[in-house]
Specification:
Order of helices and strands of chain B: EEEHEEEH
Largest sheet of chain B: 4 strands, antiparallel
Distance between the termini of chain B: 29 Å
Shape of chain B: globular
Number of helices of chain A: 26
Radius of gyration of chain B: 15 Å
CATH class of chain B: Alpha Beta
Strand content of chain A: 25-35%
CATH architecture of chain B: 2-Layer Sandwich
Number of helices of chain B: 2
Shape of chain A: elongated
CATH topology of the largest domain in chain A: FAD/NAD(P)-binding domain
Structural class of chain B: alpha+beta
Largest sheet of chain A: 7 strands, mixed
Helix content of chain B: 10-25%
Oligomer: heterodimer
Number of strands of chain A: 49
CATH topology of chain B: Folate-binding fold
Number of domains of chain A: 6
Number of domains of chain B: 1
Strand content of chain B: 25-35%
CATH class of the largest domain in chain A: Alpha Beta
Chain lengths: 1003, 107
């Protein structure tokens, strides 16, 4: 059984016990524990259930690579799923719950899947769920949704806050083990600006556990000394609990710092995302031990050998009392020695190699440990945890040699350098035969903008597996990074004793000739329940690419991304395919290294800070007067102004009726306003608009259309000629920035010799519409420096001067069909002018109106709206706007495109009005059906609704739509079925429902 | 996350400051163009594994469009230059030739 030892544990403080809750049960650990070590201390071996078969699982590892011990942390407004118990630092009051089981961790119904495992092979979903189709919705999908997935997403809003740092540095060193410290020191001493980060709370990595002497000091002492020296250097910045998540192009790196996960009461942000630009990046990310594949290797109690000694040395907990060590390399002997030193039993070291001759092997024998070479594990048996280890010859089919009683198995399949960050940015790997692992190939390193190397590896991350080699490598790498920046670097590496080491044997299956029954119980990927037999089956079925095998079997997916399983899996695949491991290659390593919470990625960009909200100069009045807002791009515009007790719908109807009968007031400030100026401005606008703008007279306005070079209508608006060389182009509210951008693009990249200047003055002016039959009377009530009479300012004219003492431009244009003035005043006068108009309009019962009334009034008049009648596939000719397309111009943007055969097809859907036979409102977007079916068996269509409203003016539903040959079919009745298929009949009519002769606006 | 230097304002721009504009040095075809020429102008784009000329706009900076010559595989940047040219300038071509032996501009 796992238990707390009576002494030891270099990271825990036994004087400070900490209590926490695990699945609602109160447990105790010590300050400095991880959740996993505290659970082991409480003999809580079972920490989760597997993804597919819901098999009971215990902790396997002691760090970020842990596949099994995933928990949900916290609750309510502070809940994080899929947290690794091995990296979760214990604190008083921590709450953790296990995942992926029902009804409980100990008794789980889904575990029946395990008995059916023969029937749930690789690619099961793909094979089984193809047929019958109807089973998808009612059988398979509910089943998958219930049983699949790991942690549940939080249900409540996250109460914590997060922030981003943007940092530039000379050298970023990822990893604070002895290699990272050495590299940082080498670069720092050379004068480089260094940022050194470590994902755990502690510096020194594995060295304090493994215990090599460095510079004649114990590793702890050496680490303490180097850390203090680095901290004293002004050019070195250090952060722990800060994980290197990804390395990207041109020296960009993302770091994820956990600030108060371990101390929830600490003030400030919970986490911080670092966006780093580094000239040089050093990955000192160490190595991860590989599991061995033998039958029963997923039983709780089977652990990585390195993890077993981590728990003993760091936390003073032992996963078992009798531990069998099984290995293909020397390193696991350290675990046996550590166990022995802690007074625990080690009945045997099973070494798969034919002989064991390394220095550690000698030490083990000297310590009285039985070493059996050429042996492996035939199977591990136990009910929910390790009970008996069956030993066999490695080169056998698993015939029993000896049964050993044990409650823990410490396995080591060799070490793989952590190459993720190196690979993210395009660094290539090479297969190292001696150590049976992929390591970074320094000749094929990631390169930056200048074509020079910008990612380097240090220490075990380079494949240097002894302390001596790692320190030499790290020192050289740190100096190389500094020299690449032009700094002078020299100085010897820290010294460690040479080690006599025997090569690692490439053991990918134990025993070598294990029959199917054993291979089907030999797990490769614990988290995703992928076994040796699954990968073999995938290979047999033709999945030769490692990328395809990954997706077919789910090997290496989910939260651990194959940190333990990757190499073992592709070795099995290589063997099945009969090719060498390097020829199979690895799957692609993608960021992040370990999951980064979404909260950290969004940072401050949430709530009110998610994006800036643009407000017109009159916004405060709208807010104070009960406006019901709607988003229009980044603007917030009043949709309507409901009075107390009035519904939004009633308010809209009232606003339309009052405006049509008397006068309304519109805040149109969001309208785009672009000044186009210069000797070639007219020529330029003739290219941008479909109609002629160069001939527009000063003092006049003209409605214009803009198309993309692909011919499609992208924006519309009224253009006013200000003077000989100046035009003011109004764009849609949403289009101001993009049209301004398009103008700049054409001027800078195509017609750069044209003398034109463009300025976006949208926010410099407030624009207010005074609309309705009483509009002129309202304006007449304030003093004006110009004539606003019918003839003094005719329709489509504009004047400039002062109105009510405020400088103003008055445009006589109409988007409602009523007598209408749009008045632009400098933005800082906007609110004053609005108030003045409200007062002047008071005798007429003036009403402010919102965007919905605006929309209804324009639809009653058959005026199109960009984004309703257009969707990026509609040309002006579809909308009956041929009158706004110049026939005289040789060229304009979109002209050539509109000449293509499909654009001139007489069968194109064209704009019409639609009038339901029963006066109801057609659903927006409804399709008109036609006779017959398409090749896909769907109904043929012949049109669709683009705008649809209830018209308070006409007292019935009105709609606009695009219908095949629509204008030629006036009076015809077309069916727009509702979602339930019931018919909705509408007659094709003119889109101008109200005042077809335009008498109202021309008074 | 590329870094490209804006040839107008001299700022080394982070990619997030830039708006991409696709292939550079396109020739516009207008109303007189054949269907094939117009299709080529509107839709056909090079997508080389290697040296490429691209348009970028310093959107969150000086607002100017410029061109970049870079390698699409190694991400090496050979240079950036103003957009008011119809072909890459000689110094850019020299820089590419020095770094990529045997490379020749394609038509």
């Amino acid at each position: 059984m796992s238990h707390r030892l009576s002494s030891g544990g270099r990271l825990i403080n036994r004087a400070n016990p900490v209590s926490f809750a695990f699945n609602g049960r109160t447990m105790r650990g010590f300050e400095g524990d991880t959740l996993a070590s505290a659970l082991l201390g409480e003999d809580q071996m079972l920490m989760g259930r597997s993804f597919k078969y819901h098999r009971p699982r215990g902790v396997v590892a002691s760090g970020a690579e842990e596949p099994n011990a995933l928990v949900g942390l916290g609750r309510d407004h502070s809940y994080e799923p899929n947290a690794r118990a091995t990296t979760t630092e214990l604190f008083e009051g921590l709450e953790a719950e296990t995942q992926n089981h029902w009804p409980s961790l100990e008794f789980d119904i889904g575990a029946i899947n395990a008995r059916l495992s023969r029937f749930l092979p690789a690619g099961f979903y793909y094979k089984m769920f193809l047929w019958p189709r109807s089973f998808w919705k009612h059988v398979y999908e509910p089943f998958i949704r219930e049983s699949a997935g790991l942690g549940k997403p939080p249900k409540r809003r996250d109460k914590d806050h997060y922030e981003h740092f943007n940092v530039t540095t000379d050298v970023l060193v990822v990893g604070g083990g002895i290699a990272g410290l050495t590299a940082a020191m080498a670069a720092g001493e050379a004068g480089s600006q260094v940022l050194l980060v470590e994902q755990t709370a502690h510096w020194g990595g594995r060295a304090p556990v493994d215990g090599p002497q460095i510079d004649d000091m114990a590793p702890n002492a050496w680490v303490t000394q180097v850390v203090s020296a680095l901290q004293a250097m002004p050019n070195v910045e250090m952060r722990n609990r800060c994980m290197g998540a990804g390395v990207y192009d041109h020296g960009y790196a993302l770091l994820s710092e956990r600030i108060s996960d371990h101390a929830p009461d600490k003030a400030g942000p919970r986490q911080r995302l670092w966006k780093v630009r580094a000239a040089q990046i050093i990955t000192a990310t160490g190595a991860i031990e590989r599991p061995l594949s033998f039958a029963g290797n997923d039983l709780p109690g089977v652990m990585l050998a390195s993890a077993v000694r981590d728990y003993i040395v760091n936390f003073g907990v032992a996963p078992g009392k009798r531990t069998v060590v099984v290995t293909n390399n020397d390193d696991a002997y350290r675990t046996a020695l550590t166990l022995k030193a802690a007074g625990l039993e080690v009945p045997a070291i099973l070494d798969a190699r034919e002989d064991a001759t390394g220095a550690l092997d000698e030490d083990a024998r000297a310590a009285g440990i039985r070493v059996i070479t050429g042996r492996g594990i035939a199977s591990v048996i136990g009910k929910g945890r390790v009970e008996v280890v069956h030993v066999c010859a490695q080169d056998s089919d698993g015939a029993d040699y000896e049964a050993i009683e044990a409650d823990c198995v410490a396995m080591s399949g060799g070490w793989s350098p952590v190459v993720h960050l190196w690979s993210h940015a395009g660094g290539k790997l090479t297969w190292d035969e001696a150590d049976a692992h992929f390591r970074p190939d320094p000749d094929r390193a990631p390169k930056g903008a200048s074509g020079e190397v910008f990612v380097r590896t240090a220490g075990t991350a380079s494949g240097a597996l002894t302390t001596e080699d790692a320190l030499v490598d790290a020192n050289r790498t740190g100096q190389a990074a500094a020299m690449a920046l032009g700094h002078k670097a020299r100085g010897p590496a820290p010294r460690a004793e040479p080690e006599s080491r025997q090569v690692t044997a490439p053991i990918w299956l134990m025993p070598e000739n294990a029959p199917y029954e054993k291979r089907a119980k030999s797990w490769l990927d614990f988290q995703n329940d992928v076994k040796v037999s699954d990968v073999e089956l995938a290979a047999q079925e033709g999945y030769e690419s490692v990328e395809h095998t990954k997706r077919y079997t789910t090997l290496g997916m989910a939260t651990d991304q194959g940190k333990l399983s990757n190499i073992n899996g592709l070795a099995v695949l290589a063997k099945s395919l009969g090719v060498a491991i390097p020829d199979v290659g690895t799957t692609t390593f993608r960021p992040p290294y370990t999951p980064v919470p979404l909260g950290a990625i969004s940072g401050e960009a949430q709530g009110a800070l998610f994006q800036p909200i643009r407000k017109t100069p009159i916004h405060d009045w709208h807010e104070a007067n009960g406006a019901h807002f709607e988003p229009v791009g980044q603007w917030r515009r009043p949709y309507a102004f409901p009075k107390s007790g009035e519904s939004v719908e009633d308010a809209v109807a009232r606003e339309v009726t009052t405006t049509r009968q008397s006068v309304g007031l519109l805040d149109a400030s969001t309208l785009g306003k672009l000044i186009v100026k210069g000797p070639d401005a007219g020529r330029f606008l003739d290219m941008l608009y479909t109609n002629m703008m160069s001939t527009l007279k000063v003092g006049k306005c003209r409605y214009g259309l803009m198309c993309s070079e692909n011919g499609f209508l992208i924006d519309d608006g009224v253009v006013a000629r200000i003077d000989e060389h100046t035009w003011l182009c109004h764009t849609t509210s949403g289009g101001a920035d993009s049209i301004h951008g398009a103008m700049e693009e054409w001027l800078q990249t195509e017609w750069w010799d044209w003398k034109v200047y463009v300025a976006n003055v949208t926010e410099q002016f407030a624009q207010i519409g005074v609309v309705g039959p009483k509009a002129r009377e309202v304006l007449d009530a304030v003093s004006a420096s110009f004539d606003l009479s019918k003839d003094g300012l005719p329709f489509m004219g504009w004047v400039e001067g002062s109105l009510g003492g405020i400088p103003a431009r008055v445009f006589r244009i109409s988007f409602s069909g009523e007598l209408s003035y749009e008045i632009a005043v400098p933005a800082n006068h906007g609110r004053a002018f609005w108030d003045m108009m409200l007062e002047a309009g008071n005798p007429h019962g003036i009403t402010p109106y919102g965007t919905e009334a605006l929309h209804i009034m324009r639809a009653e008049k058959g005026f199109i709206m960009i984004g309703d009648e257009t969707d990026g596939t509609v040309i002006p000719q579809d909308l009956g706007l041929n009158w706004a397309i110049s026939k005289k111009k040789d060229d304009y943007l979109g002209k050539r495109a509109q000449m293509r055969s499909h654009m001139t097809d007489p069968l194109r859907w064209k704009l019409v009005g639609l009038e339901t036979l029963d006066g109801s409102v057609l659903p927006d977007g409804a399709y008109a059906v036609d006779e017959g079916d398409t090749v896909n068996g769907q109904r043929n269509t012949q049109g669709r609704v683009t705008s649809s409203y209830h018209s308070p003016t006409l007292g019935r539903g009105i709609a606009m739509g695009l219908v095949e040959r629509g204008p030629d079919r006036m009076g015809e009745v077309v069916n727009f079925p509702a979602l339930d298929g019931s018919p909705q009949e509408a007659r094709i009519v003119s889109p101008v429902f109200y005042d077809p002769d335009g008498e109202k606006q021309n008074v | 996350m590329l870094i490209l230097s804006c040839p107008y304002c001299g700022v080394a721009c982070d990619e997030t400051e830039l708006q991409p504009g696709g292939e550079a040095h396109l020739t516009r075809f207008g109303p007189d163009a054949s269907d094939a020429d117009f299709e080529g102008y509107l839709f056909r784009r090079k997508n080389p594994r290697g040296v490429h000329f691209e348009r970028w706009r310093h959107a969150y900076g000086c607002g100017k469009w410029f061109h970049a010559a870079r390698h699409t595989v190694t991400l090496e940047v050979f240079g950036t230059y103003p957009a008011q040219v119809t072909e890459p300038p000689p110094d850019i071509l020299d820089a590419i030739a020095a770094k990529v032996p045997g490379w020749e501009p394609s038509s």
